[in-house]
Amino acid sequence: MRTVAAIAGVELRRFLRDRSNLFFVFVFPLILVVLIGSQFGAGSSSGRVVISGADSSLRSALVAELEEADVTVSYAAPDAASEQIARGRVDLGLELTDAAAAAFDADEDLTVVVTSSSSGGAITTRQQVDRALNSLQLRLRQEAALVGAGADPAAVDEALETAGSQVVAPSVTVTSESSVSEAFAGASGFTVGASAQVLLFVFLNSLAGSATLIQARKYRVVARTLAAPVAPVQVIGGEALGRWVIAMVQGLYIMVGTALLFGVEWGNLALSTLILAMFAAVAAGAAMVLGSALDNDSAASGLGVGLGLVLAALGGCMLPLELFPDTLATVAHFTPHAWAYEAFAEVTRRGGTLADIAVELGVLLAFAVVLLALGSVLLRRSLARAI
Amino acid sequence: MLEVEAVVRRFGDLTAVDGISFEIAPGETYGLLGPNGAGKTTTISMIAGLLAADSGAVRVLGEQMGPSRVAGKRHIGLVPQDLAIYPELKGRENMNFFGRLQGLGGKELATRVDEVLDLVGLTDRAGDPAKEYSGGMKRRLNIGIGLLHRPTLLILDEPTVGVDPQSRNAILESVEALSGEGMAVLYTTHYMEEAERLCDRIGIVDSGQLQAEGTRDELIRLIGGLDRVRLDGSGDLAAAADALGGLAAVEQVDADRTGLSLAVRDAPTAVAELVTRATAAGVTLADVEITRPNLEQVFLHLTGKALRD
């Protein structure tokens, strides 16, 4: 066992000693967690709106409604506003013309020009803007109705305020019928992005790191290792353990880092770690297969990155699995990522138990067994090639 | 200490090693000479237990060698021809890793690593990554790793390839010192002078077979063992040839326009008498040159090709 641990230890040391890994292992994952988390995590929907048009009662009333809905409002001249929209710096632009402001003051119908950007938050922000405009419209109609019924226009505002303060707002409970919104319910902050990035980087960096297996053969270190009182099975065990430890270090780093920096909640820690451990075993097996099948370390590194990205995208690590069309979702389940993603979702968002993720863990175990077995056979053959 | 008995190893239709046999005694340095593709590395791989022999046997201190036989490997220190080190790891880290594979650990490992670093002159650079070492330093690290567990048989596969003269000399001195301490050494090289300097016995390998084996002098005797002496001068060269041809040490004399060429036994001893007789016969000598047969000539004689072909 000491020999196996020594081989695993030296693999981890080499992985951490590689300076090019520092960015891709320790910095890049956290950046992506922020990006994806801000897109899909709950609380990430506060929109950004730029308003062009002179100060007016219409503008004040609309801004008050938008800010109450947590929308960030900025002001710009029409040209500057257009540029911000075109560059996606804001989700929407609202043009409040002088005519619209005058119509608002005269309690008449008015037109507001809304321009959407191509940003991901444009649709959600549009809903918030529509809700604010509807609210203003309702207020106008209430005032018109009171004036039409003979009320003093000067007293209408005060009367509506008084009435509003005396009416107890009805309690409305909304039950979501949307599977997507249900899926993300309970996903606080960056949870969605964090679990996806754990899977993406554990697998991708494991595959890219498979190049060290080839280098060990190239450096003739394998021959020297086998000339020591070491059985080939110990070398294979050490290499497998080394790959698994590397994958665990990567995964645990993202889990701990996102918990500390972004407050990501990982649910039951024992279960989350178990999912990671199982997925790391799958990644270790895949790395052994790649590093044993190829003899060119640059090719293995490049192929590893490519495969890692494709499988991650297919497995729900770039766009959440819940947003996949049915066919693509079915295809996604040929990747281990999708199973691990669902297991993480169950534990982190819905407080799932071991029984709830038993199927996912079982599938991951099957992936791991098959890949580790295949990797061991191929590695044994590659060791013979190295002598 | 090492017994190699009629080992054969085939790769498909190619018989890389074809019935090689030799032995090495404790404290003996044995040189294995042969051109590229002669079967040296395959033979070494079988001795080190990396490859299984198709037939024949290799035993180290009575232990059978083979890929799955661990016991015998404890007695062997292998220094491969290629630099078998992790370049991104520090010198000390490389030694710690391979020391652990040899079963060393804790204080014993730390002490031994310090000793070997000192032995190979890398103590000051032990904390630097191996990739920052010069070629000679890497070679010394490569050799040091093979010595960590105090092997009884050290296998050095062309350890001085690509090494500067100073490091090369340091390596040769180290091998001489280790041999002096009783370690058996199996040494392969392309450099004939290294074999002549270090090896007690030499085996010449070609086409997977051991062509000849013995001490340097025994091998030279295989090709007649005569030294060549050239006497350049003027005068009565024919008379001198007659006078010298009668000496017991002289096997052959040829006179030409500028001097005499002789085939002589033990030229360093006989040369004074040759000069005296030639001068007495009326020759004025301008130059005397002795050429002794070396292993290169033996190799050429046995295999029909130069060692570095």
TrEMBL record, chain A:
<feature type="transmembrane region" description="Helical">
    <location>
        <begin position="357"/>
        <end position="379"/>
    </location>
</feature>
<feature type="transmembrane region" description="Helical">
    <location>
        <begin position="244"/>
        <end position="263"/>
    </location>
</feature>
<dbReference type="Pfam" id="PF12698">
    <property type="entry name" value="ABC2_membrane_3"/>
</dbReference>
<keyword id="KW-0813">Transport</keyword>
<feature type="transmembrane region" description="Helical">
    <location>
        <begin position="302"/>
        <end position="321"/>
    </location>
</feature>
<dbReference type="InterPro" id="IPR047817">
    <property type="entry name" value="ABC2_TM_bact-type"/>
</dbReference>
<keyword id="KW-0472">Membrane</keyword>
<comment type="similarity">
    <text>Belongs to the ABC-2 integral membrane protein family.</text>
</comment>
<feature type="transmembrane region" description="Helical">
    <location>
        <begin position="21"/>
        <end position="42"/>
    </location>
</feature>
<keyword id="KW-0812">Transmembrane</keyword>
<feature type="transmembrane region" description="Helical">
    <location>
        <begin position="194"/>
        <end position="214"/>
    </location>
</feature>
<feature type="transmembrane region" description="Helical">
    <location>
        <begin position="269"/>
        <end position="290"/>
    </location>
</feature>
<feature type="domain" description="ABC transmembrane type-2">
    <location>
        <begin position="144"/>
        <end position="382"/>
    </location>
</feature>
<dbReference type="InterPro" id="IPR013525">
    <property type="entry name" value="ABC2_TM"/>
</dbReference>
<keyword id="KW-1003">Cell membrane</keyword>
<protein>
    <submittedName>
        <fullName>ABC transporter permease</fullName>
    </submittedName>
</protein>
<dbReference type="InterPro" id="IPR051449">
    <property type="entry name" value="ABC-2_transporter_component"/>
</dbReference>
<keyword id="KW-1133">Transmembrane helix</keyword>
